[in-house]
């Protein structure tokens, strides 16, 4: 049985450290530590300088933008938990008969004393004093070491010398290194700037100095163009979007539930369980199939009406879509006034057509008397003083833009008539028809 | 009533004129009662009138009625009450509780004041108070609370000022203030979005609040009467060019600044009253 013993006389013949400082990897790390991660470095060959405003010019996809640790390095980054005794047992227990004279230390090339403790690692043997970190000459803690270009390093020194730092958390990166946006990142630290999704396996797009996933980038792009992003393919919807179950889509992703035809933006979403608020039961139909189903269509939004239907102007309307043609406020059951195929609220009907009777304040259905900035229905065109009905032939005076019959005018106080005459306001005129 | 064909009672012709109309109306159940120019001086001459609960219009213009019995308010179906050109010196507040009264014509009377609580009409739309002796001090506090008013005629009265409460008349389309003694206008008139007739001619006005520029007074659906005031030169100049020019001018920053100056340091002199109101028959007692 062997046991490890320290050998105080072991004078390891360690070759001077090859100038690891020249290693481009080290250099990169050192520089980025000094100058910040965004510093452009000639050694970085990964990302072209993108025009931050023009997204399409700077679109970079994963294959070219996310870098793994160089493969030669990665293969050598064999993290090992060394159980020397076990290894030795395994090896020499099985390969019995192997003589001690044939065994030489991998580092110093000397042989081993009969009772000396021997370290076996990946098939090589070492004096215990030779099996140390190439940088600090200390034994490996817990037997863990890192190998690079044929030399072994303790965890600490390996990190210091070779491992990159994450641009987000600042910690050393072991394992997969994502090189992007002029920095190195842990897989878990390289995220979409908007939705915080990991980008390592999906790729990313550089947009105005930010790394975005394809979906978010499309959203940003669509927002800029005032367009929608398809919920299915995440592409921008250039033409009319199709709304379905609360999302927007390219219509061509769907087919009519009934006839199977590829849909366009005129497709209709139909509540298959009328009255249910949730829309996850809704289905899509092409316009032709939908019209055959006999669901009333709103004259304003051209969509089916599943709740209360208002029927007016020879069409059906959503209650909230039957609105005044002028102010666009819904009537909600209030009186509306129709003119030339359009509906108006009282105020705007009057404002536009002036056809509310001054006396009864109702829309004038038949003949209209208009005069003095007002209108009257046939029943109410009358003298404003005696209430006697007047007609087209009746002569009347105008007094504060009210009609006054001749008889009444003559009963006015003299001084008032004199004033009115002086003002040239009271000119007798014939009522218009 | 036994209306004998031959009446030999003298002096009854005047009485019977009104009575006859009443009888006829009762017979044919006409809800519109015309008692214009019947020489009536008192409601007592119209027996049974206050029981004609079905009537919707009562026209009593060109009579000599001095006062109205509060019981008139019992005619709860009345929509139009016309008392134009009478001798009314006061009216009962009960009228303002009439549930269907939409049009009340009190023009050419002798009203010096309106009773407290007058503004309580629930559905009043047209109120004609032209040619009386009213002014801002004799209006009741709730006068401008008649939100349903479409038209308010206050021409030929004695107003020097109009309360800013006028802004409450949200449905007002017609406002006549012709030939009062107005010295200024409340800027709140500019809030009356539906106003399409504004008569302020024959007053003592010199400047117009810039807010009036918010009104749509230049459309062909609107009438703005402004003559016979002592407008300051910039306003007079714009009026020469037309209403549209005036309304645009009122909205300019230039005018806003000028108006402020007129209101503070450069107050224009108040013109004297322009008409001799002593001759108005509304002053007769
Ligand atoms: Zn070390
Ligand atoms: Zn994202
Ligand atoms: Zn799509
Ligand atoms: Zn179909
Ligand atoms: Zn609709
Ligand atoms: Zn409207
Ligand atoms: Zn009418
Ligand atoms: Zn008349």
From TrEMBL, chain A:
Keywords: Cell junction, LIM domain, Metal-binding, Repeat, Zinc. The keyword Metal-binding applies. SMART domains: LIM. It comes from the Eukaryota. One of its GO terms (molecular function) is metal ion binding. InterPro entries: LIMS1/2-like_LIM1, PINCH-1-4-like, Znf_LIM. It is found in: Cell junction. It holds the Pfam family LIM. One of its GO terms (biological process) is cell-cell junction organization. One of its GO terms (cellular component) is cell-cell junction. Residues 40-51 have a biased composition (Acidic residues). Residues 30-51 are annotated as: Disordered. Residues 103-164, 166-223, 296-355, 356-415 form the LIM zinc-binding domain. Its main location: other. This is LIM domain.
UniProtKB/TrEMBL annotation, chain B:
The lineage of its organism: Eukaryota, Metazoa, Ecdysozoa, Arthropoda, Hexapoda. The keyword Repeat applies. Residues 119-216 form the Disease resistance R13L4/SHOC-2-like LRR domain. It comes from Popillia japonica (Japanese beetle). Pfam families: LRR_14, LRR_8. GO terms for biological process: signal transduction. This is Ras suppressor protein 1. Potentially plays a role in the Ras signal transduction pathway. Capable of suppressing v-Ras transformation in vitro. SUPFAM superfamilies: L domain-like (SSF52058). Keywords: Acetylation, Leucine-rich repeat, Repeat. InterPro entries: Leu-rich_rpt (IPR001611), Leu-rich_rpt_typical-subtyp (IPR003591), LRR_dom_sf (IPR032675), LRR_domain-containing (IPR050216), LRR_R13L4/SHOC2-like (IPR055414). One of its GO terms (cellular component) is cytoplasm. The keyword Repeat applies.
